[in-house]
Amino acid sequence: MSHLLEIQNLQVTFGGLDALSGLNFHVDEGEIVSVIGPNGAGKTTFFNTITGLVEPTGGDILFQGDSVLGLEPNEVTSLGIARTFQNVRLFPNMTILENVMVAQHCRTSQNVFGALFQTKAFKKEEQEIRQRAEEILGFFGSRLVGYRLDQAAFMLSYANRRRLEIARAMATQPRLMLLDEPVAGMNPSETAELTELIGRLRSEWGFTIVIIEHDMAVVKNVSDRVVVLDHGVPIASGSYEEVSTDPDVIEAYLGRPVESHS
Amino acid sequence: MAATVEGKSKRRTPLVDRFLFVVKVLLIGLVTIGFLAFIAQQISPDNWFAKWRNPGATGLSGDQIKGLVISGLSQGVFYGLIALGYSMVYGVLGFINFAHGEVFMVSAYTGYIAANKFAANGMWESNFALCLLIVLLLSVMVSTVTAVLTERIAYRPLRNSPRLIPLITSIGVSFVLQNAVLGIFGPGTQGYPQLPEWLAKQRSILTFEISGIKILVFLVTIVSMTGLWYLVERTKTGKAMRAVAEDKEIASLMGINVNRIIVTTFAVGGAMAGVAGVMFGLLFRAVNPMTGFLPGIKAFTAAVVGGIGNLGGAMSGGLALGSAESIAPQLILEPLGVPGVTQLKDAVAFTVLVMVLLFKPSGLFGERLSQEDRA
Amino acid sequence: MNTEISNSETTDPSALLEFRQVNTHYGAVHILKDVDLAIYPGELVCLLGGNASGKTTTLKTLLGMVTPTSGEVVLDGEVVNNQPTSYRVANGVTMVPENRRLFKRLTVKENLMLGAYLRNDRDGINEDLEYVYDLFPRVKERLSQKAGTLSGGEQQMVAIGRALMSRPKVLLMDEPSMGLAPALVQQNFELIEKINNEGMAIFMVEQNANMALSIADRGWVLLTGRVILDDTAEALRANEDLQKAYLGGGSGE
Amino acid sequence: MTTLPSSLLLDWKRIFKWGSICAAALLFVSLVGMPIKLDPKSIISPLLSLGYVSLLWLPLIFGYVASSRVVLEGVETRKPGLPDLLTGVLTGTIGGAGLTLLMLGIENFDIRDPLINWSPQLLEVLAFGARDLNSAVWIGIGGALGLVGAGLHLIPENLRRGASYGFFTVLALAIFEPALDDMSEGFRLEWLVELIFEKRGGLKLWPAIILALLIGLISVVTKGKAKNAVAQYREQEKSQKKKTSVVLFGIVAALGIVLPIFMGTYVNSLLANVGIFLLLALGLNIVVGLAGILDLGYVAFFAVGAYTTAVLTSELSPFFAPGMTWVLSLVFVIILAALTGLFIGAPVIRMRGDYLAIVTLGFGEIIRLLFLSDFLKPYFGGAQGILGVPGIDLGVVYISGTDTRGIFYLVLFFCAIAVYVSWRLQASRLGRSWMAIREDEQVAEAMGINTVNSKLMAFVVGAVLASFAGAIMAARVGSVFPNSFMILISIVILVVVIVGGMGSIPGVFVGAFVLIGVLGGPKQPGLLQEFGSLKLLVYGMLLVYMMLQKPEGLVPSARRTQELHQEEFLQDAWLKGTDDEDEEQTVAGEEAQI
Q1: D309 and D167 share a domain?
Q2: What interface predicted TM-score (ipTM) does this complex get?
Q3: Residues in A touching D580 (Cβ below 8 Å)
Q4: Which of A89, A103, B39, B190 has the most CB atoms lying inside 10 A of its own CB?
Q5: Which pTM was predicted?
Q6: Domain membership of residue D170 as a residue range
């Protein structure tokens, strides 16, 4: 069977600089894959290219066997790829509920006509959108529901913003979810909790997940497979144990163990 | 829960893009046909192709074409000088200072008042060079102060507002300046005094017939451009400007007084518009409160054509736009059989803006401002 | 210069940078509450704290981007409450910002020279340039390159070099490990230690408490705008409460 | 007084700063010609004219501003006292001195050449019509007004409110005099109008004083209950709020339908003008307020609507004159407007907000220039335009262009449609996608929203609404000219939307009635006809002032307020304890170490 996502010889150049040079990568249905690598190794560019925000200069991206090259970001999303952003980009002035409702845009279809004449189908769809949004928010426990539903997103704490961003990605009903540093800036207990949630995203909701992360604890806990990028090419790939002992990876990314230093 | 979306055609061009493609093809087609018809006309006015859309075509003489180029370029110089201000403010603050055209108008008005006072004393004729220098200095001063004051009053409090708010404010400022001048000096068109003979008369340079005042305009422009280039590229202030343009917070961490640099930017832009204002007055010898509006918008077009944030680009954009606006009606529209082409000069300028943004949104000479840079 | 570890109990007037009972407000919200801090020559001290504990406000107050509502900010014996950032930079304090924040479209050399923006002593500037080149030979190779094209590690060197160009007495480091790859975090801390060994006083705000305390001399812990712990790094590392609450990661704002 | 008590030390720098700004403002107002042009409009006859109001309010306001002090949380503020009064007096004095100097200047120098208002006429106004008035009197007036301004800080809050209510009542009555005069006939209340107003215009002195006192007293007695009611309304639950809104809307609608019957042609023609601009503003509100697209060429759709109607209905249309009825032509108006919306929208839709603004402005101009040009003259009549546009035959009634009441009802009907459309769309999938695009377009796209389609839809809806206004306009005026569609109109509509409150439907109503009703449209006179060419200056100043002081508008939408005042909202939440602090760390993150 073909891979859920397959990337062949992907190249991206910015003003003469190679951000990605000949990247090959794949994810299978139901996997959790971590992508790690030094700053500037092209990890976020990699996500941006998959989701159509950046046009690659060469190579191909196949999702469920079909190329997604040249598609607008919204088309990529409606095919079933959702993402979060490294620097949390919510719709800050929309309420928490609205943030999740609006993300169902590509799974719904009512337009001006329905809204103006308040057709049955329109009302039914609105109801469904709302229900689904509440269901998704309920996944994060009591933090994002209740009176918070109608609170603007900018009122949320840092950790809750990250959670809401994941909820919003879930609302697009993807098959593949791309998480860009989901625990950055979180404290240890929040990190531990989110790590567990990521596992449940797969087991309960059936998402396939690709994560970019610097926190090795998270990488170690959630991933089936780890891919290390450096200068736009994978330098190692395999289980966490294999990768973390790879001398190239230690050299380029992990550095010497911290303890030996002090 | 994971949705399955299958059987959908995945490679499709959005309708909008197809429409835009048609528009682009049409535009290019029109321009090409018009231009070819023009060439046909030039070869022989009796050519069927030339007569196809415009039976009365006569073609243009070489001198006529040269004249169009010169008048286009001299118009373009103003767009370029004003565009510098747009470009600099956009580079540093990231918003379009819609009121910048009005700064130009204010300078032209100051020039008119001062020049007429001199003319009333007879000094304008007897001691033209000195008068001109004083008029120029005075006007540049007034326009600089206007630019700086608008920054202080209207834009500084909005430093951290959403992007469109300063733009809307600047529309208001533009309205205020226009109507204040109208209220204070009256609505009529005011005339500059006569130029001395030696400046008004036509001269021949490299077979181009060009009036002395136009030569003066070009010279003054070259001098001011050189000064500006030196300021931005070679001085510490210029380096600070570029730093502020990129990251205000970090610039202030370097000890740069960000407010002062922004004021300097407005002042320099205002001074450039000031130079343009006086030159405009001398060349066209008429100003009214609306003088700044169209040149202002066209100068913005020029800034976009040249790639906003790029100073050399702003000047080249101005020259390009001026020439296009002067030449295109005769060269492309007339052969297509459009009557009264000179009326469509302004429409041509706006069409150029739309075309540039359609074909090359970063401008002809623009450095690409990536999303990260602006975020 | 010597790397002398001062005891936190001293009220030595030789402090380079000092907070005396500083309070700040953000609108109606009280952020810093009676904060006392002091940094002495040659020290490497760190400020730890959880989310919204006031770490960033502390830095902004030090640099004059936030004015305290009461209390004194003392720089080298002089009260600078009402002095702008530029004055403070000229008088010996500067910051290496979180995420480096270089001027990406300017060259490396221009970035370094902007660090010396307030200085006019040409010889001194050249001297300091040489010093930075000595510290980071790789920077010297890339002088005419646009800063945005450097690798993460090189950018970090330029950021530190740029800060050094103002010839500071105290160097502030804002979250030097935030969002960085492990190897880069390590490089960063090595650089900090190296500069500190050259005699530079360093004040570091960090969420990675373990890492920070491993190289610091002293540390403070902020909780909702109040300093709740103030001790030597060693003692802090041994503190059980702290172990429980903060060590092993921490959190940003 | 050997030692000055420290409380008497004045902040001279501040006094000088505000004083000179006040003087500059007075000079500006004088030289722009406000006192002269507005003098004919009498407020209290014969004491006070609008011309004098334009001067007198300045020292008062500056006295008030100069003597107000910043209240800092946690820092004790001194009670306002003598030093503040002195500050006010001195500020006003400096301001007044500016006018004194101006009078001396006009007497002794003649620089009328560039400054058209540097005239004996101005001098006469400044000297209150008296020939030999000492110019120093303005110093006194300035000082006195400054004192009053500063004194406002001293009197209790409710008295201050009372005074301002009284003052604004008188001002409003005077402004609405022509309208009241006109209405009185319908209500058979001529006697009341005669009782209050002088024949030559302006309130009579005693009625003015009595009314001011009455209203002032009422406001003192009610102690700002109105404000509380508004606050209460804001706090209501969603469903409750909806009910109240419906009731309020019903009342307004009923008034809108019933009142015109009692009004004369003057008020009705005024209302028809307001209505047309209101319709335009409601349309632009969808584009700018809801979708966040700053369209400066909105007038283009207005023009398309007007020209389509003119060509299809007028017998005098030069090229193609089918002579349709207005209602039938409306179908084509809708289609053509939608197509123009798509045509203009498509190329600009991917541009960044500010570029889009300028390019749409360019399109607006291109369309006007094309209508004006010789090129299209055979089709649209060039500068002469198209004449002979007939009235509107609705089958049951025929509304001619001069039947302003009928036009107003028609406009009202279309406004109702516009309100309904805005309201329904806002709470739909499309409305949410607009919101998301306004917030962060790139992310909206990454979340699966087809931003191009959503934005184009906003363009089209806005275009159709504007074209309705154009169609009505053509029938009302009976002709169309290219120069009725200047960029100016786009900008005036934008000002209406912004002053009222972007994204807020009640705000747009208030904006249209206050601005177009009182000041007038670009070419249409309002209640204050005297403003004439000065009204554009006022529009510009209002725009700048609103952006600086109240960008959310007079009647803001809740969301817009929140967008522009995030910090305050966070602080409020913090004070109320409903903010979202990160949870306290109770569990150590055992595994978080590398």
Answers
A1: no
A2: 0.88
A3: 148, 151, 155-157, 160
A4: A103
A5: 0.90
A6: 158-222
